[in-house]
Amino acid sequence: MNKRSGSASRAAVGAAAALVLLATGCGAVTTNGAAEGGDNSVEEGFSVGLLLPESKTARYEKFDRPYFEEALAELCAECDLLYQNADQETAKQQSQAEAMLTDGVDVLVLDAVDSAAAATIVTQAQNQGVPVVAYDRLAEGGVDYYTSFDNRRVGEVQAESLLEALEAEEAGDDAQIVMINGSPTDPNAGDFKAGAHEVLDGQVEIAAEYDTPDWSPDRAQTQMDQAITSVGADDIAGVYSANDGMSAGIVAALKSAGVDDLPPITGQDAEIAGIQRVIAGEQYMTIYKMIRPEAEAAAGMAVAAATGEEYDGGEIGLTEVEDEAGNAIPSVLIDPIAVTADEVEETVIADGVYTIEEICTDAYADTDFCTEAAGSGGE
C-alpha cells in the first residue's frame, strides 16, 4: 500500500473518479479482521446501505446521496440501495443501521453522526459479517475502508486564507479573531480545528473560541453574539468559521450588532448560500470539496468489500488513517480547495456544481461577479 505524497491536482482528483477494482479471488476482504463480506457478485447484485448524518448541511441530499447512487449503479446495475438520513440524531442512526442489518444488507456505507457511538454499529455489522465503509467521517470500531478529505488540511487552508485577508486589510500583529469550530462529536471538526490552530497560533490573538453542537447555525449565531459582547464588535478583525452554515449565523449576529463593514469570515462546503455570501463580500472564502470523487470512491469501496475484491484508490491511491483504537484503515483522502470571489468561476461553476443563473439570483444581481457575468453573456 503506497502512502499518498504531495497534493493531488484538481485534474488528478477528477481522474481518480474512475474506480479501479482489482480482483483477488473469491475470498472475503477482512481489512481489520472484522467483516466477512466477499460472498456477493456484481452480476447477481446485492444490497448496499447508505447512512448519512443530517440534512442541515445542504451537501448531503443535494450531492452526496445522488452522486453515490449514480456511482453504485454504474459499478453494480443489479445492486439495491437502501438509504436513511439520521437528522443529526445518534439514536436514530443506530436504529436505522439495525433495521438495515436485520433486512440483510450486504455492506454499509456509514457517515456517522457521532464517531464514537458509531462503534456500536460497526461492531454489530462485523458480528454479521457485513463490511463497513466509513464515509466522510471516520467511525470507530475498525471499519474496512474510509474515504474523506484531508481534514487537517481543510483547517490549514481556512486559516491561511484568513491570515491572507487580515494581511490585505493591514490588521496588524495584534489582530483579534473569533474561532467558531464544528461539532465536538464530529472527528472531522477536531481535525479542522487542529489544522487551523497550527496556522493561527502565534500569528493572531484568539479572543474567543467555541465548539458548536450539531454544527447549528443558530448556536453559531448565539456564540457570535457572546463574542461580540465579550470582545467588542469593532475589535474583531476576523472570524474562523468551520463551515458555511455557521457562517450564516455569524453574519446575522454581526449585522444585528450594527456591523456594516464585515470582517473576513471563513467557511466550508461551498454551499450555494455560502458562495452567494462570498460574491457579496459577506464571507471571505469557503472550502470547495469535490464530493463526486468522494462518493465514487465510497461506492468502489463498498462493491470491493462486498464482492471480495480489493479497491486500490485509483489515481489518488490509498493511504492509511489510524482510528482511535490504532487500527490502520485503508483510506482515500482528497485535497480541499479554497474559493474566494476570484475563484468561483474556475471551481464550482467550471465543475458544473452550480450555474451562474443559480448563483446570480435577484438578491445578488448587482454584485461585481454577477454584473461581469451578465456583461459576458454568462460565459
Spell out the key features of this protein:
single chain; alpha/beta; Rossmann fold; 2 domains; seven-stranded mixed β-sheet; three-stranded parallel β-sheet; 39% helix
Please describe what this structure looks like.
The protein has 379 residues and is an alpha/beta fold. It has 13 helices and 14 strands. It folds into two domains: 10-149 and 289-334, Response regulator (Rossmann fold); 151-288 and 338-375, Rossmann fold, CATH 3.40.50.2300. It has helices at 10-15, 59-75, 90-102, 119-127, 151-168, 187-200, 217-231, 244-256, 272-280, 291-307, 345-349, 356-359, 368-375; strands at 21-23, 47-52, 80-85, 107-110, 132-135, 145-149, 176-181, 205-211, 238-241, 286-288, 309-311, 319-322, 328-334, 337-339. It is globular. It starts with 9 loop residues before the first helix and ends with a helix.
What layout of secondary structure does this protein have?
Blueprint: H1 10-15, E1 21-23, E2 47-52, H2 59-75, E3 80-85, H3 90-102, E4 107-110, H4 119-127, E5 132-135, E6 145-149, H5 151-168, E7 176-181, H6 187-200, E8 205-211, H7 217-231, E9 238-241, H8 244-256, H9 272-280, E10 286-288, H10 291-307, E11 309-311, E12 319-322, E13 328-334, E14 337-339, H11 345-349, H12 356-359, H13 368-375
Parallel strand pairs: 2-3, 2-4, 4-5, 5-6, 6-13, 7-8, 7-9
Antiparallel strand pairs: 1-11, 10-14, 12-13
